Amino acid sequence: MAADTTQNAAAQVLPPPRTEVGVIGWMHANLFSSRLNSALTVVSSALLLVILWYGLRWIFWSADWTVVERVGGLFLIGSYNTELACPGQNCFWRPQVSLLLVTALLGMIWGIMGGGVAKRIAILAAVVAALFAFLPYSLDDMGWDVRFLLLANLPSTALGWAVARYTPLGQPRWAVAWGVAVFLITLVLQRGLPNVPGLQPVSVVYWGGLTLNLILAVGGISLSLPIGIALALGRRSNLPVVKLLCVVFIEVFRGVPLITLLFMSQTLVPLAFPENFPQNSLFRAAVVITLFSSAYMAENIRGGLQALHPGQAEAARALGLPGWQTTLLISLPQAIRNVIPAIVGQFIALFKDTSLVYIIGMVDIVEIGRVFISRPEYLASAREMFVFLAVVFWVFCYGMSYVSRHIERNLGVGER
Amino acid sequence: MLNPNTTLPRILTYQGIPVWRHAQIIQWAAQIASAILVVALVMWFFGNMAFAIDDREIPFGFSFLEREYQTPIGEHVLPYESSDSFLYALIVAATNTLVVAVAGVILATLLGIFIGVCRLSPNWIVSKLATAYIEFFRNVPLLVQLFFWFYIILELPTVREGYVLADLLYVNNAGISFPGPVSSGVTPAVVWLVLAVAAVFVGALAHHRLVRREDETGRPSYPLVIGCVTTVGIAAITWLVLSGIFGDAPFSVSTPAPQGRFGRIDGGVTIRAGMLVLLIGLVMYTASFIAEIVRAGIQSVGRGQTEAARALGLSPVNTLRQVTFPQALRVIIPPWISQCLNLTKNSSLGGVVGYTDLTNVAITMTQTAPAINIFLMLMATYLAMSLTWSLIGNLYNRHIRFTG
Predict the structure, then answer these.
(1) Is the pLDDT of residue A43 over 50?
(2) Residues in chain B closer than 8 A to A352 (CB atoms)
(3) Interface contact flag, B383 A45, Cβ < 8 Å
(4) Which of A223, B278, B361, B399 is the most buried (most CB within 10 A)?
């Protein structure tokens, strides 16, 4: 009896077979589970090795990255600080102050949301900004004030965090207000003010580089969501005239390539306004990009509204909520939550689309790269340049989708 | 009892909803107001434009369409000469866009399905490679990718020193040349193509009928074999008959070969560099989106479906082909259509890599013809293309919904 029990106990604690656990078990399950799978493993690892071998050899050995180093600060601001744009002055501090405000905003968001994604993004942004001060960029001729301003991104992030943490300003609505303020201050700083010493106006034709892409993207993102919501509601409304107008708007803007619209914004739109009407090319481009994006946004949000069970709205009406409260408090929040991936996908598309403004003669980050490699001495560096640009865009776009996945997980989409 | 002389409290005498709170009246007022606002805005725009046209003598009108374009178009599928009219040049350019759009959609769909299935593979390395592909290509602007491929192709050796594979495939910085069909005369070629398309329809019809017979009676009817044999048979017979009538085969195979001192490649089919770059860029970019759509579609099919199919004894391939994929299609088709539309619109970037697509030609035209009219035609053409895509998508959507 006793021997029997011990034998049973021993049988129960027998270790699992070696082929089921640890590295071997993992490989067995994921790489060599069948003959086909093993063949796939061999072929794909050969492919991977070839890619890695040639890729790494190119990156570290044969590629010549001097062109990227040479362009340096121009990637960020374009020809903003040239003699043409800003005669007799050093205007580099203006985008830099904007950068300080942005890192403060990121610090503030970190302070409000606590650790996690916000913390990582804030620290990464501050460190990268501060590291620019030490790189052998073409900032050399701009002196130490530039470097100090870049280094100041570290304390500014900390300041934002501390303000959010230890003062009553640590609330989401203050962060939103600060975000809007940063965007407006950036616009004013970049544009300059007449008759203010040190803030002489800089024409928008000289705005450029990543700053231009970001201004267009942030403006477009923050405006295309509300416009898209309005269009989606209009398209679903039972008022025939409103519905018709929204459908026509959405289909026209979705059916035509963005570069056609951008071209028209520069050639035809000026004709549609009186000659002395105040307008500039950047503003028109921003409006076109925003409208184009909001047509797509409208369709995404309409998808979310359609997927919503009609019982939600009916219950809200039964509880006595008026129509606009049903929409704003019941339908829209759920609809938007359901289509967060599509909305963020549209944000990413918008950011990528900002690279198209070169078509209308604006010097965004891609165009700066292209101008440089068309110089004789850098003709052979095209690959390096475009790989670098691809990485820059990739970091921003992947960052956005990373944040969206976190938001989705926090909201528990697909789990309820 | 109420004294008839005292007025009733207001609350007891219902006098209807006041005008300013009457839902229907408010709605109609809002509609009329918005319509007036939009019409006024549009009128204002057009008024300003008309004034500008008059005042600054901006050219306007469609008469330019008859004029000779007198500008070369770098790459063209249809025959084109500089003495052709603006209208014909626009048609040539639109054909260029269509060719790239159709070829791009086919290739991107194939690559996208392949990568989407790879992403779901139980093999860890394969699935991670597919994920890396998707995450890289969809997070980089198409423009940057196009420039990258443009310079890669540009750095290939010249025509004289290009790569040659078995005297059949020529790769160089002017494009890719490979053997392909050339027609000896227009009439036999067109007649045979029409008959070949008819043969495909007959074959498809036979396939459809036989599948139904197999479903209804359970007798093996070999729909795929018989359908293919029918198609190939009809095509072959018409080929032979046409060869007999015209004394020459409708098509013959032409192999590319370098000609003359500069080694220019003649014969065969050549995909020139501009189109090649645009196709590579569009296909690689769009495939990453289609792959995600395919993955989401396959994952949307319940696990029980696969398990049931396997339990009934279907092989993994047949499970995917007959059970999972047909159900996934319902989720896949709508976003796939919107990707086709995006690809068509993105082909407007052809100009940056030297491909003369519709947008590129139209923008060149604005230098010698009224820009307003050209942009109107451009918008109308793209809208027509996108509406065609939507129509195909909606028809297909209805088809699978009814039969499913």
Answers:
(1) yes
(2) 139-142
(3) no
(4) B278
Nearest by CB to B49, which of A256, A271, A348?
Answer: A271
3-state secondary structure of A326: helix
Range 11-30 of A in CB contact (< 8 A) with B: 30
Instruction: Point out the residues of chain B with pLDDT beneath 70.
Output: 1-14, 183-186, 246-248, 250, 260-263, 400-404
d(CA B368, CA B358): 16
Cβ of A393 and B144 within 8 Å? Answer: yes
State the nearest Cα–Cα gap between A341 and chain B, in angstroms: 12
Mean pLDDT of chain B: 82
Is B199 within the bounds of a domain? no
pLDDT digits (tens, 9 = 90+) for B240-298: 877 777 666 767 777 777 776 666 777 777 788 889 999 999 999 999 999 999 988 88
Q: What is the pLDDT of residues B75-126, one digit of tens each?
A: 777 777 777 788 888 888 898 999 999 999 999 999 999 999 888 888 888 8
Which among A264, A271, A356 has the least Cβ separation from residue B52? A271
CATH number of the structural domain spanning residue B362: 1.10.3720.10
Contact list in B for residue A254 (CB cut-off 8 A) is: 341, 386
Q: Coil, strand or helix: which one is B386?
A: helix
Give the closest-approach CA distance of B280 to chain A in angstroms.
16
- In a domain? residue B201: no
* Set of chain B residues whose Cβ sits within 8 Å of the Cβ of A258: 345
Handedness of CA B37, B39, B45, B47 (dihedral sign): negative
**Confidence label for A10 from pLDDT (cuts 50, 70 and 90):** low
Does residue A32 sit at the B interface (CB-CB below 8 Å)? no
**B298 within some domain:** yes
pLDDT tens, A341-379? 888 889 999 999 999 998 888 888 898 888 888 888 888
Per-position DSSP letters for B189-256, written without gaps between them: HHHHHHHHHHHHHHHHHHHHHHHHHHHHH-----HHHHHHHHHHHHHHHHHHHHHHHHSS-SEEEE--
Range of the domain at B385: 86-139+275-403
pLDDT at A1: 47
* Residue B355 within a domain: yes
Q: From the CA atom positions of chain A, what is the Rg in Å?
A: 27
**What are the chain B neighbours of A398 within 8 Å (beta carbons)?**
135, 139
**Start-to-end CA span in chain B (Å):** 71
Give the predicted TM-score (pTM) of the model. Answer: 0.84
A 276-295: CB under 8 A from B: none
- The tally of domains found in chain B comes to 1
Which amino acid would we find at residue A245? L
Residue with tokens 């903003």: A80
Query: What chain B residue is nearest to A43 in terms of C-alpha separation?
Result: B126
